[in-house]
């Protein structure tokens, strides 16, 4: 067969007719459509999505290294440091690090050095997102061994950086734990709520106490560096920097010396001691036990031992100064006021007292089981006669007693800064009892309430506000911790009563100390004191273990300091358990303030 050469093929006429005319048109149309489609797509990418892609490219080229603000310091009323900042080293990662093949080496190595599960590290990075342009803190408070190990494996640990950061430190941790509170990294739930306020992943926030109440003042503003990086993520140059703005320093009304003595006086008993200025409500001390060390919350991870120290069965995180308990006989201040102001009992009233009284078919006993003979209002307060005040309660009735209980501020919060921690307490009444117990109010409820028992619940801080009324001449004050809180300092609400009522209140409270149940406070080591004891019936499980109360102020004629001591389930009486605590606090206070004026106590 003859083979055709290319020259022959070119010279031979093509006799095909099918498709010859349509092929060039099809090719032209196809080309036009493709060109138009590509042009439209390019226009969309450049015009519509251009800024977005440019931003993504820029975020890959430019990274932000955040700089945490230094939290404001906290000082006591005399300028002594209560909370400050230290500067441990922390470890950070770029979120995109764990998406690279090298993570199979970096992840396990980092987890082993830091003693943190690898899954926990990955969770933090995933929460930030692989495209995040900010460093994410993985661990803080690195010790020297960890830093050495990270440097040793530096060639393996790509995208791992060590930076110094500000961490909270409390030099008087345990003594001031419930006052200062603590800071802790935001939980995922808190972060969702706080993003709108500028908080970010890994940020810390006040979780309790002053740290929480004054978070906005203490926090400060984040700063940072904009850094240009190459394709491998290595920094090339700093493009810009915003200085972090430190938080504001604040000064509290707390006197750290009074606080330390109150903590020492309370000892290992569960309970609280509160000291305030009765003229304006400034809190000088607020101790609660059991306590905890707030410095442990500055760690990245809490050990099992750490958790046990704050989650014990006695609830160390609970501030007992703001928790509600039956006030016992300290409440006789209210019953006495209500009796005198009701008009049903004259100031010179004398009533017999008994070993017990049967009212409404129920027997109500006297605390000494014998009675004290005939008593007036001053003598009844002096000896804390239950049967005297039963008769006052029966005479004025439940509504009047409840009305005066509320006038003294019980049943609502005091206005103290720790809003979420402070209990309202409970002032029971007819409506409450029908709702809670499906029963009407009875004379027995009034009798129990007249001596601070029954369903009545008050916080030790509310009790301090109650004692401030006779101490300052008739005003409820607002307890507060911020020294410059002018609004709280000037807030005073008059509890209107006759001058004769106020006179008998103050005489009775002074007689308690000079000749009654609080004679332990009648000492030459301190100025004259006025006060009242209380012993609340309470059960711990199946064992009866009473609460002990005492409230007192001094000097009795012109008070400077008011102290309330409460011992939970102490098993003893207010005069024998709580009053000696107050004595220690007052001796320390007056002998430091007026050196040489009062003889030192014999040890």
TrEMBL record:
Segments crossing the lipid bilayer: 25-44
Family of this protein: Belongs to the transpeptidase family.
Keyword Metal-binding included in the entry's annotation: no
Domain Penicillin-binding protein transpeptidase: residue ranges: 271-587
GO molecular function, one term: serine-type D-Ala-D-Ala carboxypeptidase activity
Matches recorded under PANTHER family: PEPTIDOGLYCAN D,D-TRANSPEPTIDASE, PEPTIDOGLYCAN D,D-TRANSPEPTIDASE MRDA
NCBIfam families: pbp2_mrdA (TIGR03423)
Stored Pfam families: PBP_dimer, Transpeptidase
Record lineage: Bacteria, Bacillati, Cyanobacteriota, Cyanophyceae, Nostocales
Coiled-coil segments on the chain, per record: none
Species of the source: Anabaena subtropica FACHB-260
EC number, UniProt record: 3.4.16.4
Designated name of the protein: Penicillin-binding protein 2
Domain of life (superkingdom): Bacteria
Signal peptide: none
Alphabetic keyword roster: Carboxypeptidase, Cell inner membrane, Cell membrane, Cell shape, Cell wall biogenesis/degradation, Hydrolase, Membrane, Peptidoglycan synthesis, Protease, Transmembrane, Transmembrane helix
Enzyme class of the recorded protein, top EC level: hydrolase
Topology class, membrane: Single-pass membrane protein
Ranges of residues in domain Penicillin-binding protein dimerisation: 67-238
UniProt-annotated location(s): Cell membrane; Membrane
């Amino acid at each position: 067969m003859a083979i055709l050469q290319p020259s022959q093929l070119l010279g031979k006429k093509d006799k095909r007719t099918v498709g010859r005319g349509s092929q060039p048109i099809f090719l032209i149309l196809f080309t036009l459509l493709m060109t138009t489609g590509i042009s439209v797509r390019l226009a969309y990418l450049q015009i519509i999505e251009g800024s977005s892609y440019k931003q993504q490219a820029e975020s890959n080229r430019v990274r932000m290294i955040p700089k945490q603000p230094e939290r404001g310091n906290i000082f006591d009323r005399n300028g002594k440091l209560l909370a400050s900042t230290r500067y441990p080293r922390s470890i950070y990662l770029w979120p995109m690090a764990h998406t690279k093949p090298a993570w199979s080496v970096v992840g396990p190595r980092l987890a082993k050095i830091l003693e943190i599960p690898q899954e926990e590290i990955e969770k933090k990075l995933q929460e930030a997102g692989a495209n995040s342009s900010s460093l994410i803190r993985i661990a803080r408070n690195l010790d020297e061994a960890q830093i050495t190990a990270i440097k040793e494996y530096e060639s393996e640990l790509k995208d791992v950086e060590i930076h110094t950061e500000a961490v909270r430190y409390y030099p008087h941790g345990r003594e001031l734990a419930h006052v200062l509170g603590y800071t802790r990294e935001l939980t995922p739930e808190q972060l969702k709520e706080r993003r709108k306020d500028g908080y970010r992943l890994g940020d810390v926030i006040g979780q309790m106490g002053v740290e929480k109440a004054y978070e906005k003042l203490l926090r400060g503003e984040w700063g940072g560096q904009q850094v240009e990086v190459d394709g491998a993520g290595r920094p090339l140059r700093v493009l810009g920097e915003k200085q972090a703005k430190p938080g504001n320093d604040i000064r509290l009304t707390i006197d750290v010396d009074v606080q330390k003595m109150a903590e020492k006086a309370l000892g290992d008993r569960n309970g609280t001691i509160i000291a305030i200025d009765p003229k304006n409500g400034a809190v000088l001390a607020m101790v609660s036990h059991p306590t905890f060390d707030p410095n442990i919350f500055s760690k990245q991870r809490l050990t099992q031992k750490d958790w046990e120290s704050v989650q014990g069965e006695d609830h160390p995180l609970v501030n007992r100064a703001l928790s509600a308990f039956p006030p016992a006989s300290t409440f006789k201040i209210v019953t006495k006021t209500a009796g005198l102001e009701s008009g049903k009992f004259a100031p010179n009233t004398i009533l017999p007292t008994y070993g017990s009284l049967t009212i409404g078919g129920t027997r109500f006993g006297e605390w000494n089981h014998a009675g004290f003979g005939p008593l007036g209002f001053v003598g009844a307060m002096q000896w804390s006669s239950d049967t005297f005040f039963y008769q006052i309660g029966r005479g004025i009735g439940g509504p009047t007693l409840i009305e005066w209980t509320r006038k003294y501020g019980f049943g609502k919060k005091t206005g103290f800064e720790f809003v979420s921690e402070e209990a309202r307490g409970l002032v029971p009444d007819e409506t409450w009892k029908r709702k809670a117990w499906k029963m009407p109010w009875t004379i027995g409820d009034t009798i129990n309430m007249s001596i601070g028992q029954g369903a009545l619940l008050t916080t030790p801080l509310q009790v301090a506000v109650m004692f401030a009324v006779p101490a300052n001449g008739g005003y409820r004050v607002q307890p507060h911790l911020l020294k410059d809180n002018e609004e709280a300092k000037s807030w005073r609400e008059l509890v209107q009563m006759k001058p004769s009522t106020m006179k008998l209140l103050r005489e009775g409270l002074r007689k308690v100390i000079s000749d009654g149940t609080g004679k332990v406070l009648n000492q030459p080591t301190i100025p004259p004191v006025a006060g009242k004891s209380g012993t609340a019936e309470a059960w711990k499980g199946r064992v009866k273990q009473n609460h002990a109360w005492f409230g007192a102020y001094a000097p009795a004629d012109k008070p400077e300091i008011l102290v309330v001591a409460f011992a939970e389930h102490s098993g003893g009486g207010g005069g024998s358990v709580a009053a000696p605590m107050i004595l220690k606090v007052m001796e320390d206070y007056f002998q430091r303030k007026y050196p040489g004026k009062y003889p030192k106590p014999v040890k």
